[in-house]
Amino acid sequence: MAEGESIIRTVGLTKRYGRQKAVDSLSFEVREGEIFGFLGPNGAGKSTTLLMLLGLTRPTEGSAVVCGLDPQRKALEIKRLVGYLPENVGYYGDMDAAQTLRFIADLNGMSKGEAEERIRELLDLVGLGENGRKKVGAYSRGMKQRLGVAEVLLKDPKVLFLDEPTLGLDPDGAIRLIELIQSLSRERGITVLLSSHHLHQVQKISHRVGIMIRGRMVAEGTIDNLAREKFGVGGQEYT
Question: Rounded to two decimals, what is the model's pTM?
Fold first, then answer.
């Protein structure tokens, strides 16, 4: 796949629950290597969209392609290429970080030697190297979120889906996590689809953003262009 080529694409993607449209005719693209900020209030349809892209729920209408694959027909293949960090990450509290990652590595079919080397590297990368033997039940939410990032990086994914990764974090923890996500995209070329309702965090690292309201994409583009074209303002910070 050539640099800058579309790695995620949806056309008319729609999800209904009874008469309610959670996602309504969604069409957008994310290019390889970019950070795309998926903005919108709670209930806008962002999480449902991520689940459809992962093949975890079926669309009512429309289509999607992730890494050249149809999520409804090639869900397992997509899961090998994509890392997903849900809004609420659950762990076994009596396991430490290293044990947790060994468990995930085993589920992904990694060899013991490969897993051990990767686990040491990732714990250092996310800033948990000194806490690798600490029980996860004693971790703060910020530490659990960083462990979640290490978990999704275990299989060296091409794409990261991050659903509200800074939710519940204090300002310092949120900044550290946002900087980590930015460095992963810049240094490793990982494509990131970042779902959030915090504009001030997303605008710091996203190449482009899409704004969802009531299941529809109401605006898409760079923060600067959206500010000028949709809101008639200029400058560097928008709310």
Answer: 0.86
